[in-house]
Each structure stands twice: as C-alpha cells, then as structure tokens.
Design goal:
By secondary structure, the chain is an alpha/beta fold. It has helices at about 45-55, 75-85, 105-110, 125-130, 135-150, 170-180, 205-215, 280-285, 290-300, 305-310, 320-325; strands at about 1-5, 10, 10-15, 60-65, 90-95, 115-120, 155-160, 180-185, 220, 230-235, 240-245, 260, 265-270, 275-280. Helix content is about 30%, strand content about 15%.
C-alpha cells in the first residue's frame, strides 16, 4: 500500500499515454501547438504495462488513462486489454475529447470499461469551434450521445472560461435534464503552454454556483466521497447531476489520493509542482521491479500537504501545458 508522509492512502493513478492531441483548445496551448515529446521519449507499451502492474501490486486500484488525447495513441487498446486483466484493479476510466473514441466503444463495453470523462467546453457548434480551433462538434456530440445511450457512466467536464463559454453553462445543464449524465464545471487553471498568464480567475467555483442558482434556485447538494474533487448537486426533475471542481482554488487537497505519471514517465505527486523523478529512464536501466517500486515510495513519501505549499517551492511551474502534464 502506498501511504504518503501525511498519512494519505494513494490508490489512484492518472496515467498519460501520450502528450499529443488533435484539438488545439485555446486554454491548453497556443494555436501552433507545443513542442511534443519525441516518440522514443514516450513510455513504450511494454513500459506502460510494466508500470501499471507494479503500481497495482503496490495498492493502486483505480487507473485513469489520460493524454493529450489517449485515442491518438494507436496501440491504446492493447494497454486497456492488459489493465482489464489485472484482478485487483477495481476501476479503469478514460478522459477523452471523444473525437476518436467511436470505433472502440463496443470493445470498451466488452472489457467492462464504462467510466468516461468527456472534455466538452461548449455544446453549441460555433463556440466549440472557437475554443478548440477545430470543427469537430458534430462528431463529438454524436459520440457523447452514443456513450450515454449505450450505458457508459459519462461525466462531461467543462472548463469555465470568462468571455468564452459562460452562456454554455445553462446549455450543458440541459443535458442533465434528459440524460443520466454528470456535468462538471471546472475552474480554469494556468497550465496553458504559455498561451497566457494569470494569478487569479474571474469564475471560481462559488461564482459558478451562484450563476447556476439564478436559473435553478432549488438545487440540492449531494453526498460525495471524501476523496472526490467535485462538489456535487442535483436539480429537481433532472435525470443527471452536476458538479463543481475547484481546480484553481484547490479545496480538495487535504484528501488527495492521486498520483500522476506523464507520457514521458515523470512522476508527479502534485499538479502544482515539478516531477519528483522519471520512471522511464529508470525502467530502461533497471531490470529489478523493486527498484522501480522504491522510486515511487520515495516520491510518495515526500509530498506537500497542499497544492499551495507545493507551488511555493517551484518557479515557472505554470509554463507547462495540461497536455504534457497528463490531465
């Protein structure tokens, strides 16, 4: 079992399989993109499988596959088949922009992988195009409805962007009226590949909630798991729910149970800090599994208590893009 230096059990791995993405969301990276890692700098499929197996042996029982866009990696299903065969792994989930998932939906069902986080910052075509810089809305919406109707547990993640998609908040909440889907609104974060800088945000989770209450004054707060990053609510008469994720305010740090590994093998114990080590280089040099496990134990044993504490230790941490960090 992985337990950090604040006595928090770490059982959740966010594993990035690529830093590449086929969209160019303006809050994530500049229009021209970022300097993506060379192919041989990415974790190989064999390395991803080895890493996953070792961490499951150490007590990780939930793995979320992230990117970039995970399905931009052509061999992704090989990893998912492998993960589905790990007996003590309770939960496999995927974060995706839903542009490339269509051909894999049936196999995902067969593998029992039903938890999908779908990044969608606008549900009207023109705003979607303006934010993503790509004309892919119809495909994304088609795959969203298909996932919902075929029984997947879909959570739609919308980053609230001042001056860009505030009108979309009510539009996205209409999804919860008709479908058993969770729509979560995230505070904007500064990890945008240098496209712009800021030290505060206009729309924190409290302002988002007040905005929602203007139209839906009878919302009801729901019980959430202690490690949940979202504060969840229901709207009377709606099939689905909605949530708020204080990703900038960081109110959930005290119960953090997450560990990140980037597509290039960086071990990240806090989103607001620098990598603690690189497991790719270690695995390529070290055949002994225990040495790899010990590297993770050492990283977990030296965590900051909160993201604010971690942020104070490092300069220029916000120059990264979320696509290179791993979501």
């Amino acid at each position: 079992m992985l337990i950090d230096n604040h006595n928090r059990v770490i059982n959740y791995l966010r594993l990035a399989v690529t830093d590449r993405c086929n969209l160019r969301c303006n809050y994530c990276m500049p229009a021209e993109g970022i300097d993506f890692a060379a192919r041989d700098h990415l974790l190989s499929m064999a390395e991803l499988k080895r890493l996953s197996k070792l961490l499951v042996e150490e007590g990780i029982d939930k793995i979320r596959i992230t990117g970039g866009e995970p399905f931009a990696r052509k061999d992704l299903m090989s990893l998912l088949r492998f993960l589905a065969g790990l007996e003590t792994l309770k939960d496999i989930s995927i974060t995706t922009n839903a542009t490339l998932i269509g051909p894999y939906i049936e196999e995902l069902k067969l593998l029992g992988i039903r938890n999908i986080n779908l990044s969608l910052d606008a549900i009207t075509r023109e705003r979607f195009k303006n934010i993503t810089r790509r004309d892919q809305f119809d495909l994304v919406y088609e795959n969203l409805i298909r996932l919902i109707t075929e029984g997947f547990n879909v959570r739609v993640n919308c980053i609230v962007l001042d001056g860009q998609n505030i009108e979309e908040i009510y539009e996205l909440l209409e999804l919860t009226r008709h479908y058993p889907v969770s729509v979560r609104f995230l505070e904007e974060m500064p990890f945008n590949g240098g496209s712009r800088t800021f030290n505060k945000i206009q729309w924190d989770f409290r302002r988002i909630l007040k905005h929602i209450q203007v139209k839906y004054p009878s919302i009801q707060k729901l019980e959430s798991e202690p490690t949940s990053t979202s504060i969840n609510y229901s709207i009377p008469g709606h099939e689905g729910t909605f949530g708020l994720i204080p990703s900038f305010s960081r109110t959930f740090c005290g119960s953090c149970n997450r560990l990140r590994v980037s597509a290039t093998g960086d071990i990240i114990t806090c989103l607001y800090g620098k990598p603690r080590a690189n497991v790719r280089d270690l695995m390529r040099l070290e055949p002994e599994d225990d040495a790899v496990k010990q590297t993770f134990r050492a990283a977990i044993g030296n965590r900051s208590k909160t993201g604010f504490e971690e942020q104070e230790k490092y300069k220029n941490v916000f120059k990264n893009s979320m696509t290179s960090i791993g979501g």
